[in-house]
Fold this sequence. Notes:
Elements: H1 2-24, E1 27-29, E2 35-37, E3 41-45, E4 49-55, E5 64-69, E6 72-79, E7 99-106, E8 117-121, E9 124-130
Amino acid sequence: MANLTIYRSLSDLQREVDRLFDRFMPVSREQNGTSVWSPVVDVHETDEAYVVYMDLPGLSRDDVTITFDRGALQVSGERKMWHEEEQKPQFHRVERWSGHFFRSFQFSHNIDQEHTKATFENGVLTIELPKTEESKPRRIEIS
Length: 143
């Protein structure tokens, strides 16, 4: 039991460190000089499914690609600068991320891929990944 408590504490610490890095340093540079950023995400689990919420303000569903393969959910896309087609204005401050984004999540339970669905509303991508019947918790009656 003590090992499980230590594992959970370390897991919580890892998530917090990841969250801090994502919040304060969400952008990296690819070799060709374009930026890569990580949108903020919430993932929760119920007995029936995993649900992923990803903030993607200013994007449309056509800007996003979602794949699921061997337990890995991958979400990627690109946010273009709003001024790319216009004359480049003189910026005094740039805080909104642009360029390519990518997030990947591994799921330990079997996912029912046939019933997985995604919606995009008000800049929030919601992905519902239902569990297979075999992976759902079952109550065992005592005889």
